[in-house]
Amino acid sequence: MIGIVNQAFAKFVIEQIGEATWQEATSRAGISGDVIVATSTYPDELTFELAGHVCDIASVPLDDALSLFGEYWITYAHDRGYGPLIDDAGGDLAGTLHGLEALHTRVALVFPGSDVPDFEAHGDRDAGMQLVYRSRRSGLGPFVLGTLIGLIKHFGEDVTIAREPLPSEGSGSIERFTLSWG
Q1: Boundary residue ending a domain (11, 31, 60)
Q2: What is the pTM of this model?
Q3: Half-sphere exposure (CA, 13 Å, Cβ side) for 157?
Q4: pLDDT tens digits, one per residue of 139-157
Q5: How many whole angstroms separate alpha carbon 43 and alpha carbon 112?
Q6: Which has the closest alpha carbon to 101: 67, 135, 68?
Q7: What are phi and psi of 133, to 5 degrees?
Q8: Is the separation of the CB atoms in 164 and 175 below 8 Å?
Q9: Is 65 a domain residue?
Q10: 175 by DSSP, 3-state: which?
């Protein structure tokens, strides 16, 4: 996981749950909460360990926490100077979804060594859209759902989302998100 995502997760936990929870989670993980470097990459296991500790301490289901964090991530990234990556992907939600693959290609250039997912967007605002998410990493579907919710709020659009995990070969995950405009 890219360090900036872990930094955002720390800020999310501190703001939404409390600094004591973050301090306890990092203590349980055996790390100092202020040693995460934004431009470094970290094993996903560290991120999931921290998230697991936070969820255990706060009695929050992991999928719920990841979804809420995904929503938070959109505003966090936008406000930290990565807004142009989001805004340049498309002028509205549909355009941005069609531009997600290119956005993640740029992220991979900015953060060498990052393991970015693949996205395929089909359809449009009038007919509805399907977004297929593929990743070599497992367990991040709820985070993707949250980022979609964050993008919907960012663009001020009225959209419902259905999430459907799909069978994948080997490790990793494939999920389809169906979006319908209200």
Answers
A1: 60
A2: 0.90
A3: 22
A4: 999 999 999 999 999 999 9
A5: 14
A6: 135
A7: -110, 125
A8: yes
A9: no
A10: strand
